[in-house]
Design brief:
This protein has 296 residues and is of the alpha+beta class. The protein has 9 helices and 14 strands.
Length: 296
Amino acid sequence: MAFPLQYVRSDRVWLKSDSAYSEKWVQGIIASDPTVLGLGEVELRDMERRQPRAGRLDLLLQEVETRRRYEVELQLGATDETHIVRTIEYWDIERRRYPHYDHCAVIVAEDITSRFLNVLSLFNSAVPLIAIQMHAIKVGEHVSLVFTRVVDELARGLVDEDEDAQAAPADRAYWENKASASTVGMTDELHQLVQDIDRSLELKYTRHYIGLTRQEQPNNFAAFRPKRNSLTVELKLEKSEEIDQIINNAGLEQLTYQARQARGGGYAISLTKDSLQKNRAVLVELLRLAYVQRNG
């Protein structure tokens, strides 16, 4: 027997102007179930995290599967300049302290005006940034929080073949200065593994990544981005349970999987010198699989 739908009136509650609520209250609700923000399967890593020579980060969240980290700052009422600057500052501190992780800044506020939407969109071209507007809805004696993403992170794909035609040239010295001689040396080790698969493959240095060429033509089934203390390896591989299992069983740190409609997808893996040495056989297998998918 079907029952008729019943309408229940709801009212918007402005938490900033209601003394019954506080930022701590909102923080506790998100901490108890971080998935309410709509960022996927995330878990709480820390709350009120102390920042060197700065304040405290409201919430640090981490994706369960990819281990990507979100630096979340809350604000009751309307967002403002200090809220934006503080969020980006904490994101920058965390990514410098823990470069092995992929990081994203998250702003949460009750009101994000059109003026600040424009500002956030400008920052988003340089900083991975998500803005979420929070509504408190009261129904009878109950209050619920609704989180709506109003600025999404700018999608940053893995290396595509057409990037080679546009990428500004660079050399080994450029990357040793930008990252470190040690992580560029890790690229050399991976190049040796690549040449065990195909002796004709050579490194090509650009200002955005170190790619691969064969007979002077791009062949970026793998690309490398050295950092100060780690190396990100991007592999053009379609997502599969087999690949996920290989990566997980080896304990490799998967930063993300980037899907593309036209060119398949790609895995991004963060390596340290120790993890490279420990997993050389696994990396050869992944590189070979990527090579076969790209070259047949």
